[in-house]
Structure formats: structure tokens, C-alpha cells
Design brief:
Blueprint: H1 7-13, H2 18-26, H3 33-37, E1 47-52, E2 61-67, E3 70-76, H4 89-92, H5 95-98, E4 108-110, E5 119-121, H6 124-142, E6 147-151, H7 157-167, E7 172-173, H8 181-190, E8 197-198, E9 206-210, H9 220-231, E10 235-239, H10 245-249, E11 252-254, H11 261-274, H12 280-286, E12 287-288, H13 290-297, H14 302-309, H15 313-326, E13 330-333, H16 344-358, E14 365-366, H17 409-418, E15 426-430, H18 434-437, H19 441-449, E16 453-458, H20 463-466, E17 470-473, E18 485-487, E19 490-492, H21 507-517, H22 529-537, H23 544-550, E20 552-554, E21 576-577, H24 581-585, E22 605-609, H25 624-628, E23 635-638, H26 639-644, E24 652-656, E25 661-669, E26 676-679, E27 721-726
Parallel strand pairs: 6-7, 6-15, 9-10, 9-13, 10-11, 12-21, 15-16, 16-17, 22-26, 23-25
Antiparallel strand pairs: 1-2, 2-3, 4-5, 4-17, 8-14, 18-19, 19-20, 22-27, 23-26, 24-25, 24-27
């Protein structure tokens, strides 16, 4: 990729931060003390040590090869069920997460205007004192609720939550509403769990994937299981408006019209129930609400769905029969985002119910796993203070069935702007990039302008850090401990394999130090990172030293106290709820029901986004190894449409939505519907502190309009419609690239 700004240019922009960004290049490599004590390294300090990846939320087991004090290779740990000896391209490139030349390695305090990128170095003591004083000032003046906290889901989450709950703020933002709120809430309403675990047994015959591009949006173990199922002859039916890599490996690709996945699945329910193709004994014994469901879906014929989806009625009917015939060795995969419309919750409910009707529980689906275990210990702490203030994201007063720990991130941002029901004044952000991730970037920047104080914890100057007042440098996942990860009958350890570069620190250390300054030390009762993990391990009767050597400890699962063996599903009825009384009581349909999606006007296109194998959302575009093997981002457009617009591949276009406009070159292809265009997310960074990613591509968040599913709070990303216009004079392509706001 061609860079638009050199390393030297960046250092001129902010000379005050030169030391912070260059420290790592001057430090001698050092093997971590923990690695030395593990007993797996030789006398020279070389060898392989076990830890866990953090290049995405899947958290695979990693074997880090150490040579001359540096990490030189990462491989999958065969002992970890998420890696099984394998790593995806992002996992294998994780060492550049640590050795990125743009790492922030000392605390930074802003000295210019927000967004200028002018910072000065600070000691940890000064930076933490400043953060604590600003947070206390906001709390004393406006109440604890005026301080907003947000973080991407990660292993240090319990400590982050200790900080915000102990501080007394109800305002907690996660990225989940931008990704899989609809799936989580739908499964909770159906099965009483966020996501039932999937068992790809060796008899699996049929897999129905709705927009789940597993061969590019890689979850290592699940992607591998899908590949093995295909090799064994399982049929894969894949619904997606694009011909992705998953479509290329599927048995059948159905280029469904965006927003109409729900119609397809309602028609499947109509056929399976109407023709009595379901598992009657399983349904009678294990479900409630069948009669209500039957009545609702009786009107959703395959002919009705064909007109909406673009999929012939006979194809829908055939797939329903094939799916039922393959039962119980069949799976309707929940996916994460499906169609990305405001009706996605009902789509997810329909998918969950399809699985229940064919009785694949304990064959394909089983009780969901999690990252909590009754077998682990924890430091003692007092109860959290009571909080009476409303949450800014509308949970539960506007979104009554959305779990508190998930929230509605885009609504949180919107109400920072509106000041309704009150004005926020501070934002504490950890491992997250809301400026890039939340739709309508201009509105997020407006929200930042409403705040008195912003602090970010991260390893690089991402776009959000670039606009922050204080940046606290976290150690990379190869340089730190995090809390243990329970998984089945084991708990896995993330441990440092090299010492942190510069002054970077673990989240366990940062939150404890900040908690003490805020008078919240009772919520952080551990001496250091190793003491925290020793307290977690205490009930298991194993030492940290034992766990370091192999990377995990045995932890037999224990049943929850008072849990009945008969009650397998944590729903009010104790059964799978085809009709949800919980939904009905708060004014929503208790069964999946048709919700007509909006459509683009003449001359507009659906704007699609989705993952590629080389990127994780918005966090890996600066990784030099991944960047080397990534194409210049281009917008996909259908070949017939391109011909009408006189477009050829690499021509520049102006793309406009109701909230923003970008310039981007196009890729002309037959692999997308004629009513859609597609962009890879995560590009168009504003931060000049990202010298690899800055100026590359365009940001989809500039275009996305904020639409929120009223039930699950999920963001409807594909409900944004755009116009596309050829740029006639593209002689100077650099002038067409997205410009830093304010220049």
C-alpha cells in the first residue's frame, strides 16, 4: 500500500511525542520474568511459552517462540479448543501488535487542540493523578453518571467494570450493539443464554449460514470445523448479497435481497410447521408457545417470501425439506449480524426457533460456554454503591430486554450529543475506537466536542486516542497478564512472554492504580498482577508456577447451587420459548413476525460492510504484516451497474449518504447484487499517529446512518443507502482521499 504520510512527517507533526513513540526502538529485548520462571526456556532464554492471542475476541491459545529476547513466531496451541494448533492470519501477525513502530510507550497529555495530535510525555504518576482529578471533579460537580465508560469485550473486563461500578456511573458502553446484539437478545429470549454452544459432530449433514462469512470473518475453531464439515460432504446453504469466499465453498449460494433474511426464515418455519416436518416429541417435551408460533407463521408462504427475497418459492420449499430431512444433524447458524436491519432481532429469533423445531439440542447445539466459572476465586470487595440515575443508552427505560452489560452503544453517543436525559462530561475508553466504529463519524466527533475530559487506554494512537486529552499506554497481549479464561474443564492463562516495552503497563495495574487515586482501593484488593491470578487459582489447589509451564490448569466444572438437572434453559418457563412472554409483556411480539424493511430509492444502493481475513474491525489496519498482504481498499460495485455509470475498476467515485460523503476507487465485479455496494470497514483513519494506516482507504462510518433495532438495540448497518457518482477529473488521486477534518 502507498502511504500518504511518512514516519518522519509524523514526527514533525508532534515532536513532543517522539520519545513516546520511539522508545521501543532503543530498548534491548528482554524475556519476561514470568517466561523465565516458567521452566520452559533453555539456559540462553530461548524456547516456546504458552499464552493467548488478542487479535480478535476469539482468544485462541498461542505458543510464542522466543529467540534472543524477542518474539519471532506465533503458532496455535493444540491444547486450546479455540486454536487446536492453528492460528488465522491475524493471529500469526500478532507479534507486530507488539513491535508496531507506532506504539505509544509512555503516558501522553494533550497540549494542542483536540485532533491536532500534539501531546507531551508524562510520568504515570502525573497522568494518573490528572485522570483521577478530572474524574473526581466531574463527579463532584455533575454526579458520577456524567462520566461515561466504554470498552471492547476483553479478559480484563471484570476490573474495568469494578472501576465504573465502584465509581458509581451507570453508563457502560460496549461494541456489541454494533455487532451481535440481535443474536444475543434473541437467544436469551429463546434459550435463556447468549449463544448456545455449537458442536460440529462428525454426522453434521446440513448447515444454513445467514450472512456468516466464516471463511473471512475467521473464528479459528469454528472456521476450521466448517471446513472439515464441508470436506465430509455436509451441505452448506449460504445467504448473502455478496459472493464471498464462504459463498465460493458453499454448496449453494443465495444472493438474497438485503433486509429480507427474515422473510426467508419465516417461510422455512411456515413449511416445517405446516407440513409437520418438525420433531414433535422434542417440541412437546422441551418448548412452550408452539400454538402461538404456528398461528403467526401460517401466513408466511414461500411464494410470499420469494417476492421479497429474490429466491424462488420452489428453492425455499426444497431447502426447508432438506433441512428437516437432515435433522437432527442440521444447524441453522445464528451468525452474528445477519442482514443488519432493524428487523434482525426477529430474524435471529426465527433462526433460533428453527433449531429448536428440528430437535438438534445435544447433537449440534448444547449449553453455551462462557467466561465465568464458579471454580475460580476472586479478590474480596464490598458491594457496589447504589445508582439511581438513568442510563444514557436507554437501557432499560427505552430498551427493556437489552442486558445491562451489552447496552446500546450508538444511543449512548447520540445522547451525549443531545444531553438527554442529562449531559455527560467525561468519557473513559479502553481498547476501543468509537470514532471509527460508531455510525456517523461526524456525530461522534460532535459528541467528543461536548465533553470536558476524554481518556483512552490503548497501545497505539488510534483515532479515538488522537482526539483524547490523556492517553495511557497499555502493554500488548504478549507483554502482560490478564485474568484467567475459563473454558470447559480448563482455565487458560495469558502471561507475558517479553517484558513491556517503554513504560507500558497492564490493565490490571492501570485500573488498580487509578482506583486507589479515586478512593476505590477496596475494589482492587491485589498486590500485583500475579497476586490477582493466584487468588483466582486458589480454589483449584494449583500454583501459578505450575500453570505458567503449560498455560492452563484443570478446573472441573461445578453445577450452580440449586440448579435442577431438568431445567436446562434459563428462561422463565425453564423451557425453550417459541413464544416469549417476556417480550409480550413489554409490548413486543412474542413470536417472530414480519417487519417490512425500508428500501433504497431509485438511483440509491444498499451500503454493505463485512470482514476480511486480514482485518479485525478497526484495530489491525496499522499492523505492518497484515497491511503488506492487504489490497488497497476499493468499493465493490456490480459490473452491469458499473457499465451504466461508465465505471471501470480503479475509477474514483463520490459516494454520498444522508450523513456524509467519501471518495474511493471501485472494484467492478459480478460478485455482488446490482442493488448493493460493499466497503471493507476499518479504513480512512484520521489519526496521523498511525503511519501505516493513515490516509489509506475511506471510512464507512462517515456514511453510515444510525438506525437502531427497537427490541435488541442492535445497529442496522446495512440500512444506509448511498448514491454513487463517477469523479470525472481524477488526475490527482491524492486530492480525492479523505482529508483530516479541519485541515
Amino acid at each position: 500500500m502507498t502511504k500518504t504520510i511518512s514516519r518522519r512527517d509524523f514526527l514533525k507533526i508532534s515532536a513532543a511525542s517522539v520519545g513516546a513513540l520511539a522508545v521501543g526502538q532503543m530498548l534491548p529485548p528482554m524475556v519476561a520474568k514470568a517466561a523465565k520462571e516458567s521452566g520452559v526456556l533453555n539456559a540462553a532464554g530461548d524456547g516456546v511459552i504458552s499464552t493467548m492471542c488478542e487479535m480478535c475476541v476469539w482468544r485462541c491459545g498461542v505458543l510464542a517462540k522466543i529467540k534472543d529476547g524477542r518474539v519471532v513466531k506465533l503458532d496455535g496451541n493444540p491444547e486450546h479448543p479455540h486454536s487446536n494448533g492453528n492460528l488465522c492470519p491475524r493471529g500469526q501477525s500478532g507479534l507486530m501488535n507488539t513491535y508496531d513502530p507506532d506504539r505509544v510507550l509512555t503516558p501522553l497529555i494533550r497540549v494542542g487542540k483536540r485532533g491536532e495530535g500534539k501531546f507531551r510525555e508524562a510520568s504515570w504518576e502525573e497522568a494518573l493523578d490528572l485522570v483521577a482529578s478530572k474524574m473526581t471533579e466531574i463527579k463532584n460537580k455533575y454526579g458520577a453518571e456524567a462520566m461515561v465508560f466504554s470498552s471492547t469485550h476483553n479478559l480484563s473486563q471484570p476490573l474495568f467494570e469494578n472501576l465504573l461500578y465502584a465509581f458509581g456511573s451507570p453508563n457502560y458502553g460496549t461494541q456489541r450493539s454494533l455487532c451481535f446484539n440481535a443474536m444475543i437478545v434473541a437467544n436469551t429470549m429463546t434459550y435463556g443464554m447468549e449463544e448456545p454452544a455449537r458442536i460440529y459432530d462428525d454426522k453434521l449433514k446440513y448447515i444454513l449460514l445467514t450472512g456468516r462469512n466464516l471463511l473471512e470473518a475467521i473464528s479459528t475453531s469454528e472456521t476450521s470445523d466448517l471446513s472439515h464439515a464441508i470436506d465430509r460432504g455436509a451441505k452448506v446453504v449460504y445467504l448473502d448479497p455478496r459472493y464471498t469466499k464462504t459463498a465460493s465453498k458453499a454448496t449453494e449460494w443465495l444472493p438474497i435481497k438485503p433486509g429480507n433474511d427474515l422473510a426467508f426464515h419465516l417461510a422455512l418455519l411456515h413449511i416445517i410447521i405446516g407440513e409437520k416436518l418438525y420433531n414433535r416429541s422434542f417440541v412437546e417435551k422441551n418448548t412452550v408457545g408452539f400454538d402461538e408460533l404456528k398461528k403467526e407463521v401460517s401466513r408466511y408462504t414461500p411464494e410470499w417470501a420469494a417476492a421479497l427475497t429474490g429466491i424462488p418459492a420452489e428453492t425455499i420449499t426444497r431447502i426447508a425439506h432438506e433441512f428437516a430431512d437432515a435433522a437432527p444433524h442440521a444447524l441453522a447458524h445464528n451468525g452474528w449480524r445477519t442482514s443488519n436491519f432493524v428487523n434482525s432481532f426477529h430474524t435471529q429469533r426465527a433462526i433460533s426457533i428453527l433449531n429448536a423445531l428440528i430437535g438438534n439440542w445435544d447433537i449440534v447445539l448444547t449449553e453455551g460456554g462462557g467466561e465465568e466459572s464458579g471454580t475460580l476465586g476472586a479478590p474480596p470487595q464490598p458491594a457496589y454503591p447504589r445508582v439511581s440515575a438513568l442510563r444514557l443508552d436507554g437501557v432499560p427505560w427505552k430498551y427493556p430486554v437489552v442486558p445491562f452489560k451489552i447496552g446500546v452503544f450508538q444511543e449512548l453517543r447520540d445522547n451525549i450529543v443531545s444531553g438527554d436525559p442529562y449531559q455527560a462530561h467525561g468519557w473513559f475508553i479502553s481498547r476501543q475506537n468509537p470514532i471509527m466504529s460508531i455510525p456517523d463519524r461526524s456525530k461522534t466527533l460532535e459528541a467528543f466536542g461536548k465533553l470536558d475530559f476524554i481518556v483512552t487506554v490503548d497501545i497505539v494512537l488510534n483515532d479515538t486516542a488522537w482526539f483524547s486529552d490523556v492517553v495511557l499506554p497499555e502493554a500488548s497481549y504478549l507483554e502482560r497478564y490478564d485474568p484467567l479464561l475459563p473454558f470447559g474443564d480448563k482455565v487458560f492463562l495469558r502471561q507475558p512472554v517479553i517484558e513491556p516495552q517503554g513504560q507500558a503497563k497492564s490493565a490490571l495495574w492501570i485500573y488498580k492504580q487509578l482506583g486507589e487515586r479515586l478512593g476505590l482501593s477496596d475494589y482492587f484488593q491485589y498486590e500485583d498482577e500475579e497476586d490477582y491470578i493466584r487468588q483466582q487459582l486458589k480454589p483449584l489447589g494449583v500454583t501459578l508456577e505450575e500453570v505458567k509451564a503449560k498455560g492452563y490448569a484443570e478446573a472441573p466444572e461445578t453445577p450452580h447451587a440449586g440448579e435442577s438437572a431438568e431445567k436446562r434453559w434459563n428462561t422463565p418457563s425453564g423451557k425453550i420459548e417459541l413464544f416469549s412472554d417476556t417480550l409480550a409483556k413489554v409490548g413486543f411480539s412474542g413470536v417472530p413476525t414480519w417487519d417490512e424493511p425500508p428500501q433504497p430509492a431509485e438511483g440509491q444502493f444498499y451500503l454493505l460492510t463485512g470482514k476480511v481475513a486480514q482485518s479485525t474491525q478497526f484495530g489491525t489496519q496499522n499492523n505492518q504484516l497484515l497491511n503488506k498482504y492487504s489490497d488497497e481498499p476499493r468499493m465493490w460495485i456490480n459490473a452491469q451497474v458499473a457499465a451504466k455509470l461508465d465505471l471501470a475498476t480503479d475509477d474514483w467515485v463520490e459516494v454520498t449518504s444522508e450523513v456524509g460523503q467519501i471518495h474511493i476507487p471501485v472494484l467492478v465485479t459480478q460478485a455482488i447484487r446490482s442493488d448493493c455496494v460493499f466497503m471493507t470497514p476499518g479504513y480512512g483513519h484520521l489519526s496521523k499517529g498511525l503511519t501505516t494506516a493513515y490516509g489509506v482507504g475511506a471510512s464507512d462510518s462517515v456514511l453510515h446512518v444510525t438506525y437502531t433495532d427497537p427490541i435488541s438495540g442492535g445497529q442496522a448497518l446495512s440500512q444506509t443507502f448511498v448514491t454513487v457518482k463517477k469523479v470525472e477529473d481524477a488526475s490527482n488521486a491524492e486530492t480525492l482521499k479523505p482529508l483530516y477534518l479541519g485541515e
